Amino acid sequence: MRAETVRQIALWRYHDGLGCDTIADRLNQDLVKYPPPEPPGKQRARGAWGKSSVYEILRNPKYTGYQVFNRRASRSRHGKVNDPVKWVWSPQPVHEPLIPKWMYDELNARRQANRGSRDGNDPNTHPETRRTYVLRGLVFHGCGRRMFGSHRHHSAYYSCQPRANNRGRLDKYAGHEKAAYIREDLILQAVSAFYADRVFAPDRRDLLAADLATVEDHETRRRDADRDRLQRTLADLARRQNNLMRQAQDCEPDDPFGQQLRQTYNDLDAERRATLAALADLDAAETDVPVRPTGQDAGLLDALPYLIDNLTEAPEQLLRGLLDTTHLAVRLHADGNDVTLTIRLPADDLPLIAPNGGITA
């Protein structure tokens, strides 16, 4: 398993909100760059990524750099995974993390809310599907449950009805109203005002101009960090190989210790070749420099304050793309008809987007 592959899976999951199936499909499009994992039994190898492989990577706490004990039951339950509250974490990281601990924790927190929800907003493949809901998977009730779309009286609604599919667990939703509804058109009106005021306000042009003059290329910085890490790995591998060579020189050809040293040397050499290949991929990626906006492109921002009048009329596919890109979440308060709208944007841009802190309405 390549470290770069694990990082890419986590980034797709965290920043793009992709499901395990979608991530597996992306990985399978380039098996040279993202070689699939090899199971202990070669006869079980599929030669491709599957949903379960992606899921196991995202759930494996050891990718955070910490050592985790008691993950599985050793004396009963046939080795099933224990409740995470029973896991024992090392006090400090024991190796370089591939997935930051804070990202791992947030991905786990999101998993329950997104369970059973497919990616995108394409129609359900069920033959009786008649319509789509532009806010599918983005609207939550105050109880924490994701609200589902329904259609009644020629209007789209989002509702939360825990008693309909939680028989036997009603104590968890004690005090919950029988059914909570909110109309889609009312949400979209609030969303339009929110984006026009908080995201695409009239000062966006000035902020973009300042950003173009000062911002560093994030991709360049990331590649530089990756290159430095890979070069340090190569230097460490060379040091370890030289040390093994010195020890092997004093061993007879049939000495078991010398044979083991040579095997270790060969393993390190294979790792060195893989690191060199990763460096080559990194250098090749530098040719794909994204096109950055210019000062002339900033003129398009002059029309954005009028978005409130037109956002609800935008094609559903384009509107959904905007909502997914900004990670919109709509939360209906349990004790009234108020909603809280939140979006998530790159951390580097937050000081410009919300200089007073917070992007919540």
From TrEMBL:
Domain Recombinase zinc beta ribbon, by residue range, is: 135-193
Which residues belong to any copy of the Recombinase domain? 3-113
- Is DNA-binding a UniProt keyword of this protein? yes
Highest rank taxon of the organism: Bacteria
Keyword list (alphabetical) reads: DNA recombination, DNA-binding
One Pfam family of this chain: Recombinase
Protein name, per record: Recombinase family protein
The organism encoding this protein is Kibdelosporangium philippinense
What taxonomic lineage is listed for the species of origin?
A: Bacteria, Bacillati, Actinomycetota, Actinomycetes, Pseudonocardiales
